[in-house]
Design a protein that fits this description.
Structural class: alpha+beta
CATH architecture: Beta Barrel
CATH class: Mainly Beta
Number of domains: 1
Radius of gyration: 23 Å
């Protein structure tokens, strides 16, 4: 089962990853010539925890949070200023009141809701427990300008501002645990499966404000930590994106060039 869940997660994010990688590749090829003319400063590998601050109204959303991994390619603009091209992959869990009804799922609305209710009502030997699971997968492609102010040789705080595009895919999975009692032999047969609603996906724009620091523990390596406030610019054509803003705590490893 763990392997099956992993395969489903990879499959659900496959289109997102493909689209994101194509855009990342294009941006790398078009990375500002001024940076290339200067010097590559560092590559940063990082992980993060994210939590929704302001959620979209009208959907009875309770919380959105999760984790992710990413990479930044930093170029040097001056002795204290850098520009970075970054991307990441985030898997966030969405908690929502009555998500199946909120999803506007044609299969559920037109057939399955009434079918399951009728089945357990007409035949009391049937029983079912339905558990919804909702996720949003996001791949951003962001350009960030950072200003560094070294306080000491090893401790380097920074401020940053960035903007970019976010590819998202929102999924709803309904886990169904069924049982049927056979009174003539006093036996209960149990089984379960996942029912998947249609996928909701699109693109939105994002603005970042970041604050953090690097601790250089070796000539070519440093630890990086910080917090990021992310504000989303959501077009009217993207009614399924659930976030207005997000808080992110990030920890990374910096490899200097």
């Amino acid at each position: 089962m763990p392997l099956l869940k992993m395969m489903k997660a990879v499959k659900s994010g496959g289109i997102l990853i493909g689209s994101g990688l194509l855009l990342v590749g294009g941006l790398i090829l078009c990375f500002p010539s001024s940076v290339q003319a200067q010097k590559l400063r560092a590559i940063e590998l990082h992980g993060h925890y994210a939590s929704g601050l302001h959620l979209r109204s009208g959907e009875q959303l309770q919380s959105i949070d999760g984790t992710g991994l990413g990479v930044d390619l930093q170029g040097k603009l001056s002795s204290w200023l850098t520009i970075a091209l970054g991307t990441a992959y985030s898997d966030l869990t969405i908690e929502q009141n009555d998500p199946v009804e909120q999803w506007n799922w044609p299969f559920w609305n037109r057939f399955y809701r009434n079918y399951t209710r009728s089945l357990v009502t007409q035949d009391t030997n049937y029983a079912v427990v339905m558990t919804p699971n909702q996720h949003i997968y996001m791949i951003p492609v962001v350009l960030t300008v950072k200003g560094y102010y070294p306080l000491k040789k090893r401790f380097i705080p920074f401020l940053g501002i960035g903007a970019g595009i976010v590819f998202y895919e929102r999924n709803l999975r309904l886990n169904e645990r069924w049982s049927k009692y056979f009174p003539e032999i006093d036996y209960t047969f149990e089984y379960q499966y996942d029912n998947h609603a249609h996928v909701k996906k699109g693109q939105v724009f994002r603005i970042d404000l970041s604050l953090g620091s690097e601790y250089r523990f070796a000539e070519h390596f440093a630890l990086s930590g910080g917090v990021i406030y992310q504000y989303y610019l959501v077009p009217e054509r993207e009614p399924d994106f659930p976030l207005k803003s997000l808080f992110k705590a990030r920890l990374g490893l910096v490899l200097y060039y």
